[in-house]
């Protein structure tokens, strides 16, 4: 396999966000059957930066608003974000960014 053994929760979230790097993101994506593209990377880096700044994760609405503020209205809307991460933008952005599970996600 050649993959590092990532320590993740039962739901596939990285246990220590300090373990994260781009190779880890690729690996998490592979585990989730996601082929990472530029749009997804942009959101992943966005949420990592957000978490570093605020030390907490936003709910979906705040997440969408923060993206709109930072990346523009074309990306800060749920239609775009669901195109990027169809199974749940905030959940998968956090998962692939090596962050904890967002409080609003089941």
Descriptive report:
The chain has 106 residues and is an all-alpha fold. The chain has five helices and no strands. It has helices spanning 22-31, 38-54, 60-71, 78-84, 89-96.
List keywords for this structure.
5 helices; 106 residues; mainly alpha
Query: What order do the helices and strands follow?
Result: HHHHH
Whole-number total of structural domains: 1
CATH level 4 superfamily: DsrC protein, C-terminal domain
Largest sheet: none
Low-confidence stretches: none
Fraction of residues in H or I helices:
40-55%
Brief summary of the model shown:
51% of the residues lie in helices and 0% in strands.
Topology:
Elements: H1 22-31, H2 38-54, H3 60-71, H4 78-84, H5 89-96
């Amino acid at each position: 396999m050649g993959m590092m053994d990532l320590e993740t929760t039962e739901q596939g979230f990285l246990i220590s966000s300090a373990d994260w790097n781009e190779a880890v993101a690729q690996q998490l994506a592979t585990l989730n059957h996601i082929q990472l593209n530029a749009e997804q990377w942009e959101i992943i880096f966005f949420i990592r930066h957000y978490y570093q700044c605020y030390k907490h994760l936003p709910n979906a609405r705040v997440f969408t608003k923060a993206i709109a503020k930072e990346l523009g209205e074309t990306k800060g809307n749920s239609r775009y974000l669901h195109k990027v991460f169809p199974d749940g933008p905030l959940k998968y952005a956090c998962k692939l960014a090596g962050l904890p599970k967002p409080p609003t996600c089941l």
